[in-house]
Amino acid sequence: MSEEEKREGGDRLKLAIQKSGRLSEGSLDLLERCGLRLRRGREQLLARIDSLPIDVLFVRDDDIVEFVEQGVCDAGIVGENVYKERYLGEGEGESLEVVRYLGFARCRLCFAARDIEEGEGVYSYMKKREQEGLGVRIATSYPRTVRSYFSDYGGVEVVTMSGAVELAPRLGIADAVVDLVSTGASMNAHGLEVGETLLRSEAVLLSGKGGVREGLVGVMEKLLCRVDGVLHARGNKYIMLHMEESRVGLLSDVIPGAESPTVLSLSGVEGIVAVHLVCHEDVFWETMEALRGLGARKILVLPIEKMMWEV
Ligand code: PRT
Ligand code: ZN
Description:
disordered N terminus; Alpha-Beta Plaits; flat; 11 helices; 16 strands; alpha+beta; binds phosphoribosyl ATP; D-Maltodextrin-Binding Protein, domain 2; single chain; 3 domains
């Protein structure tokens, strides 16, 4: 990006998101739920938002941390794994901070090898290799994270690969791998068993540690408030049901935060009321069954789209 482009729109907050990949859909969905509609042509790398002074840049995920660090962008959405990998470098990334955990693109950075049990710890694997007089070569795209994690173990050699890491043992390049896993199917398809988890990751919103540029503080606050509203709503459900009025007090045994629900009378019906309440977690079938156990009927569970919930 040229100096001129950097200066242009200096009063607008620049947010970097992944152009295309596993973070894109979640990032765009979050922006939309925040009411930030993008004006974007198909191949455009930058899109304006009309409702707030925000420009969105579409880039490769690997560039996002660096862009925020260099001040090319004010904030960015990236996998925590990518941020941590950079943060572990000599001083790099230290000027950044995670301002929100966003709850999508969840995955684990895992150790995997052919000759281990599912979930096996690294320590027992290393011990076995040591007893056989062998060291371990680990292929990964996350060399800093791996070196740091294995710093207490001797005899570990890290082989850095930018992709196709799962193939390394079969190709004889390495004995084991450390790579991202969500279902584990890809590892298994390459004959590898998934062992210990080095890092759990999800998408995060990053910005500079000292906050954003002076003129953008208010915009960032607004953005964070909307993000919080979306995140909060995601973890909450709205429940409506009918039950005996005398049993309403028992609801808090089943649903956390149900101490003061809205109770409405039903016209022409004595002793039975309609109850409306917000449940601060996902509602599973077990919860529904427990509600029925309390005598609740006509139970409806609704998603909440947005929330501003001051207690
Ligand atoms: O092109 P660009 O550089 O922008 O994208 P990229 O190809 O480097 O990244 P991308 O889009 O693959 O992933 C972006 C981010 O998504 C990662 O940094 C993680 O934070 C997150 N994420 C979440 C994942 C996965 N889930 C995931 N499953 N990243 C990669 N995978 C891989 C996994 O390694 C395996 O190869 O997906 C494959 C399928 O996984 P299984 O376990 O379900 O078989
Ligand atoms: Zn990438």
